[in-house]
Write a structure and sequence with these properties.
16 helices; 31% helix; five-stranded parallel beta sheet; GMP Synthetase, Chain A, domain 3; 569 residues; 13-stranded mixed beta sheet; single chain; Rossmann fold; alpha/beta; globular
Length: 569
């Protein structure tokens, strides 16, 4: 059987030794194969593009500067900024010097930036000017830095990255698959960050598994869109590292703002789009809202066309109405050049999944963790299962531990993309693995006979009802994804009587401000109606029995997951 990584055989023993190359080996191969093809592009607002040859040259310049500044192998280089070509160049420049990249969330409070910078003993910082201006330059770890460089405007403490000029260009520090490439801090919905250590082999093996066999097919003619924050493993691996592996153009988006996204998608002619459930829900809701405005007849016609196209696409592998949808709907969102959408960082409602498929877009879901570089499963385009988060990757050994009567248990994994543990944190590292060496994901699910994974929820979020039944909050939350009235929802258990340990089901909802504008008096009535509709789809023990409406949004991670532990109402 042929695998995507077979292409590496011609370079093994020359460019690299061992099973997997280092990350910069991939960039080197692409620079040689596609020197004049577009590499990195940004619209700000004018189009700026670097070819792969120019990307390599810029990485060499910045990497040589770092070496000249005293950065050595294993030193930690912090990157903290919005998505941009500069962010990516600094990432690869750090690897050029043999350093370990420490990407931080640019929305992180400055006290956490200080805490993590000190914790990893950072040697160098690349950051946006807005972040640099907040740094306490008298902090010991900041004073010990070998340099601070701005990815945007120059500041009193930092020059802009474009002005760095090394005295001479220096060859890159060679690294192997076993060397540490990055420390990725989990954004986490439950507390303090933990730094997952990922080697070059962890990351590269995941990149190749994602494009193996029936999974993704990506080539140099594709255009990928880095919209989700690059400090997050999903975006960094599935967009940035896939781009340098296949020579695909990478377009950088600054913010998850729909108007800017549409502009980038149209001008960049994006072919592969990776997003999160919240984003896909908003795109679909906005699209169907515009269709409804054209009247009942038009809406009915479009929905009928979607169902017909979905039938042909699913059963005959034929997409007869895609061009019609491109003209009528998708071109207005910049999706008319798109051939595949991928959803990660959370489960998507099967209804949403199905509607994108009906529109003629190959739409698939995946699943993974920061600690697994991150992807573990992906739905094949030709053999997708709507309810599943995908087929287990070929080199991943996945088991379901501690199964209940229905076969649901904790998902546990081994594989070349799995972290060795958390940086300077032996206690949490020990808790991460079971006695057989499997990483405990903390997610509950089951595998079918074909090795497709179905998720139920998080171990720590399970609600136990009076009859001893398990209720998974995430399953109920997913049913609200297409309701325009609901901006945020959190399902949790509550005790009606303190001396009875069983729980009932509560919905905490932050209503959509846009939907209820001018209709503030209808919020309770409308949400009660929504709850009633959802309850009709649920078994008796899962039904929502209490609704709490809040007037402020709940805190979320950078991938738009609610920080459950921060909800205090």
């Amino acid at each position: 059987m042929n695998h995507s990584w077979d292409v590496l055989d011609q370079y093994r023993g020359g460019l690299f030794e061992g099973t997997w190359p280092a990350i910069l080996d991939l960039l080197s191969i692409t620079k040689e194969k596609f020197p004049k093809r577009n590499g990195f592009t940004v619209f700000n607002p004018e189009r700026t593009t670097l070819t792969w040859e120019e990307v390599w040259s810029e990485v060499r310049r910045l990497g040589s500067y770092l070496i000249e500044a005293g950065i050595k192998a294993e030193d930690k280089v912090v990157i903290n900024g919005k998505n941009s070509p500069a962010w990516a160049l600094s990432y690869f420049a750090a690897l050029w010097a043999g350093a370990v990249v420490v990407p931080l969330d640019n929305q992180m409070p400055i006290d956490r930036v200080h805490a993590l910078g000190e914790f990893v003993e950072a040697s160098f910082v690349f950051a946006d000017a807005a972040i640099i201006n907040q740094l306490n330059t008298e902090a010991p770890w900041v004073k010990n830095l070998k340099g601070i460089v701005s990815l945007t405007n120059p500041t009193a403490a930092a020059v802009n990255y474009t002005t760095l000029r090394p005295k001479k260009m220096v060859e890159r520090v060679k690294r192997t698959e076993h060397d540490l490439a990055a420390i990725l801090f989990t954004s986490g919905t439950t507390g303090n960050e933990k730094g997952a250590m990922l080697t070059h082999g962890n990351l590269v093996s995941d990149v190749f598994q994602a494009c193996d066999g029936i999974f993704l097919q990506i080539s140099e003619v594709d255009v990928l869109y880095a919209l989700l924050p690059l400090h997050h493993s999903y975006s960094c691996t599935a967009v940035l590292l896939e781009s340098i592996t296949h020579g695909s153009e990478c377009v950088f988006g600054h913010d998850i703002v729909v108007s800017k996204m549409i502009n980038d998608m149209k001008r960049g002619k994006i072919t592969v789009f990776m997003g999160i459930p919240l984003l896909y829900n908003k795109i679909l809701a906005g699209m169907m809202k515009q269709v409804r405005k054209k009247g009942v007849a038009t809406y009915a016609l479009i929905r009928t066309m979607m169902k017909v196209n979905g039938f042909f696409k699913k059963h005959l592998k034929w997409n007869p109405l895609r061009k019609s949808f491109d003209k009528l709907l998708l071109s207005k969102l910049g999706l008319d050049h798109n051939r595949i959408c991928i959803c990660g960082a959370g489960p998507l409602s099967p209804k949403v999944f199905t509607q994108y498929q009906q529109l003629g877009i190959d739409f698939i879901q995946g699943y993974g963790l920061t600690e697994t570089a991150p992807i573990l499963t992906l739905n094949p385009v030709s053999r997708f299962k709507v309810e599943s988060v995908g087929l287990v990757f070929p080199l991943v050994d996945m088991i379901i531990a501690d199964k209940d009567d229905s076969g649901v248990g904790e998902v546990r994994v081994k594989g070349p993309n799995v972290t060795s543990g958390y940086y300077k944190d032996p206690e949490h590292t020990a808790e991460l693995f079971d006695e057989e060496g499997y990483l405990k994901t903390g997610d509950l699910g089951y595998l079918d006979k074909e090795n497709y994974l179905y998720l139920k929820g998080r171990v720590k979020n399970v609600i136990v009802t009076e009859g001893g039944k398990n209720v998974y909050p995430e399953e109920i939350e997913d049913l609200f994804q297409l309701y325009d009235q609901v901006e945020q929802i959190l399902i949790r258990g509550y005790q009606e009587e303190k001396d009875i340990p069983s729980e009932l089901i509560e919905a905490v909802i932050y209503p959509s401000q846009e939907y209820f504008e001018g209709k503030e008096g209808e919020v309770q009535k409308e949400l009660d109606r929504v709850i009633t509709e959802v309850n009709q789809q649920l078994a008796a023990y899962k039904k929502i029995t209490r609704l709490t409406i809040i007037d402020k949004p709940m805190d979320m991670t950078s991938t738009k997951k609610i920080k459950r532990n921060k909800v205090t109402v």
